[in-house]
Design a protein that fits this description.
With 242 residues, the protein is an alpha+beta fold. The protein has six helices and 17 strands. 18% of the residues lie in helices and 31% in strands.
């Protein structure tokens, strides 16, 4: 296997994000064949070299990566364990005997599609703004915003803190007596972006459910369940990873 930057090897092993791996290296918490390294540009062979993070040996890379679609329930933490004892994703995937991490985080009170994988590079490919990967949500908002109000949701809309949204599309799915379901497609995923969008037009969010992320679709997967990729999702993933 060709040599790679050691921070990418750490990321691909699922031990940390690329940025966090860089911090660990610069803090002197990473060793390569028994020698402390502090330069993130250091290269190594993940199959031959011994790399440790905080004294723990990184596992050898697998030739075949695993990918799962998970339907996160509301009020579940997007981690595999939680020091506060809150329900977390790890509680629902105990039968998957792999070291996984999540791609496409959701707020504690949001639900829907997440990707679980042992492929450390996938998160960067799916979440980097330059790739413009669509994120599709069903959003339940308070009240019944009219078309004029909804037309304010467009590219360049100011959502506060100096942030503006990029390409966005919306469709009213269902109007109820005191609330409205809206299908929303965005491409960036800034922090609390959806809540900030609807707060701006004075129709606060009541529920958020992600139903699509790039080539992946929630489909009819029950809440708190997981599945392997469909053929079309696998084909879309292969195209994405090229």
């Amino acid at each position: 296997m060709p040599e790679q930057r050691i921070q990418l090897i750490i990321r691909d092993a699922g031990a940390a994000s690329r940025r966090k791996a860089e911090e660990l290296i610069m803090e002197g918490r990473v060793t390569l064949n028994g020698r402390v390294v502090t330069d993130p540009r250091t290269k190594a062979d993940p199959l031959r070299d011994h790399i440790k993070v905080d004294g723990k040996l990184l596992p050898r890379p697998r030739h075949h990566k695993s990918y799962y679609v998970f339907n996160k329930p509301r009020h579940v933490v997007c981690t595999f364990s939680d020091p506060e004892g809150r329900p977390c994703i790890g509680d629902f995937v105990k039968t998957i005997d792999k070291r996984l991490f999540t791609v496409g985080r959701l707020d504690f009170d949001a639900e829907g599609l997440m990707i679980l994988t042992d492929d450390g590079g996938l998160a960067e490919k799916l979440t980097h703004p330059s790739r413009r990967i669509p994120r599709t949500y069903l959003v339940k908002v308070r009240g019944n915003p009219d078309e004029t109000t909804l037309s304010l949701i467009r590219r360049g809309m100011d959502v506060g803190d100096g942030d503006k949204i990029g390409d966005v599309a919306w469709t009213v799915v269902k109007r109820q007596k005191t609330s409205t379901w809206i299908r929303l497609v965005i491409h960036e995923g800034k922090k609390n972006e959806i809540k900030r969008i609807f707060n701006r037009i004075r129709h606060p969010v009541r529920k958020i459910r992600r139903i699509g992320l790039g080539p992946f679709s929630l489909g009819k997967l029950p809440t708190a369940s997981w599945r392997r990729l469909t053929r079309s999702e696998a084909a879309g993933l292969a195209s994405l990873l090229r």
